[in-house]
Amino acid sequence: MPELPEVETVRRGLDRFAVGRRVERVEVGRERTVRRTSRRAVIDGLTDTTITAAHRRGKYLLLPLDSGDELMIHLRMSGQVLVAPAGTDRPPHTHVVAHLDDGNELWFVDPRTFGEVVVFDPTNVEVELPELARLGPDPISDGLSLRELRSLLRTRKRLLKPLLLDQHAIAGIGNIYADEILHAARLRPDRLSDELPTAAERRLHGAIHEILTRAIEAGGSTLGDAQYVDLLGEGGSYQDDHAVYGRAGERCQTCGVGWIRRTVSAQRSTHFCPRCQR
Ligand SMILES: [Zn+2]
To answer: Catalytic annotation on 59?
Structure first.
């Protein structure tokens, strides 16, 4: 499932290929992709508008339009945004096509159809996209200071792994990067957030920024199923740098002593080194 670094890579692609372009025509196939509103709402909301910017908050892509509305794209499990010259053969599961005025087409492709495309009024976000209004700070696009993180950790009193996954606390981190961040911070996933020494809070703060920044530089992580790709269909390379995620049973490369362990909590797999994460 695409997380902050993957969605940020897609955002950069949209910045390059979509911003400044006018949408001349829109096709919507699968109605499930536009279930939040309707096929008609997405077609009418996008047609003859110009995309003025490409933003991201957490895992949400937000593209303001010159009509005053915004286009929201959420990739969820398997969504992809691809760009191709008009007339190119489309892959299966292409549910939305925007014909741009430079002769390119923007495709929303989604085999599992959990993803969403919505045109909404940003002045009415609490009603039209309530979960967006409730998102916590995004460590990259909003910044997340040590002071803010410390206040989150001390007031939420939760286990670190589920806290990092909680989009209302911090936006954008999912299962892969939560595991990698906790490993870099040398903290066990089941530590309680309000019982960390100050030095551990500082390590966690540093690890959040370091891991997410490095993963963005690598274009995100593309796992075996290859569902996540950028606008040109290229995968990322950060999976090669995963220290714990997907490495259960392997020797920990960080300490060279421990063995990576995999546990399951709240139906999510968690990977950590019991030797260097305390
Ligand atoms: Zn280790």
So the answer is: yes
